[in-house]
């Protein structure tokens, strides 16, 4: 049976909710990389597309022993004053299942031009002719801002919630707790 843990962000007058969620999610991602966990998924019960928000709760989903090991790890150090961690509980049997996946948006014309110049040996003007400034994609879906451990750069991780679908037997997630093939219980 699958279980879950809710980690709720507490209101803080000094830090906006989205900043705290970014810090919390970055810490989780680093831990999932470190322990090479592929059985832990995430969801955001407060996910809304209008206005785009992930809400104030990060829900971890997975087998109870894996969640227990994860929560015994001191990964929340530095976040304890900003979070409330609920006890591990079983997922309701009647929970719907929905895909939650990363959407990669080609939003920066400058970055796309630099890539064209590097890959195809184009001049700056040729790249500008191919990719004008108005070619940047704009999306209005929730995202979390992460910091890359390898490059140090900050980037948005856009998340798209799909419609309810059938649950799958296979339970496999990447180091962001996301999957293109495994829907997560949504309740």
TrEMBL record:
Q: From the UniProt record, list the coiled-coil ranges.
A: none
Give the superkingdom in one word. Answer: Bacteria
What NCBIfam families does the annotation carry?
Answer: cas_Csy4
Annotated protein name in UniProt: Type I-F CRISPR-associated endoribonuclease Cas6/Csy4
Q: State the organism of origin.
A: Thiorhodococcus fuscus
- Which gene carries the instructions for this protein? cas6f
């Amino acid at each position: 049976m699958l279980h879950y843990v809710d980690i709720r962000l507490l209101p803080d007058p000094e830090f906006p909710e989205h900043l705290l969620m970014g810090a919390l999610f970055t810490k989780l991602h680093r831990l999932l990389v470190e322990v090479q966990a592929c059985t832990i998924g995430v969801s955001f019960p407060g996910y809304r597309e209008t206005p785009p928000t992930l809400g104030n709760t990060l829900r971890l989903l997975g087998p109870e022993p894996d969640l227990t090991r994860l929560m015994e790890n001191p990964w929340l150090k530095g976040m304890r004053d900003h979070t409330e961690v609920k006890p591990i509980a079983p997922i309701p049997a009647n929970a719907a299942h929905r895909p939650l996946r990363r959407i990669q948006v080609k939003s920066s014309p400058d970055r796309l031009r630099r890539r064209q110049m590097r890959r195809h040996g184009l001049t700056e003007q040729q790249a500008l002719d191919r990719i004008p400034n108005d070619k940047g994609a704009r999306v209005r879906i929730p995202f979390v801002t992460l910091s890359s451990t390898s490059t140090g750069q900050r980037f948005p991780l856009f998340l798209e919630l799909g419609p309810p679908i059938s649950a799958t037997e296979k339970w496999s997630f990447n180091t962001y707790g996301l999957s293109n093939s495994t829907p997560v219980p949504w309740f």
